[in-house]
Design brief:
Elements (H helix, E strand, L loop, with lengths): L3 E3 L2 H14 L3 H16 L13 E3 H5 L3 H12 L6 H4 L5 H19 L4 H10 L2 E2 L2 E2 L3
Antiparallel strand pairs: 1-2, 3-4
Helix pairs in contact: 1-6, 2-6
Length: 136
């Protein structure tokens, strides 16, 4: 069981820049990136072969939500059992979604005029429950 993964260099640079702009911790941004990617592309996420970015430790990323995140991935991939390597490693679904989601977060950040508050507001607009959008 892997206890850490390494993001792509590009994802690490994006998360570091967003951390500076939003004042959110990198792990929070990584979880946001993961969720954004999973919700937008699901099982169609591109694989990431770049491991030259920042280190992310398993307990730091999952915190108390490992079962929840495993369940989200199992649902999205329609597979009841994910291996440990598929869940968290340098070749995992989690890493792929963090790396891809960082690109998506950066695109949103750019379209929001490089505003941290604008980015958060835009992400809130994307919240969807049971197939319908909620207005906040």
């Amino acid at each position: 069981m892997a206890d850490r993964l390494y993001t792509s260099n590009e994802a690490d640079e994006i998360l570091s820049a967003l951390r500076f702009e939003t004042k959110l911790e990198k792990v929070t941004l990584a979880r946001m990136a993961f969720a954004l990617s999973l919700s937008r592309v699901g099982a169609e996420v591109p694989g990431s072969q770049n491991f030259s970015g920042g280190e992310m430790k398993r307990p730091t990323f999952f915190a108390e939500d490992e079962t929840f995140i495993r369940t989200l991935l199992s649902y999205a991939y329609k597979r009841p059992d994910l291996s440990e390597d598929e869940l968290f490693s340098n070749r995992s679904l989690t890493k792929n979604h963090i790396d891809h989601g960082a690109l998506l977060l950066n695109e949103l950040f750019q379209t929001c005029g490089r505003s941290g508050d604008g980015l958060i507001a835009r992400l809130v607009e994307e919240v969807e429950f049971s197939g319908r959008r909620e207005n906040f």
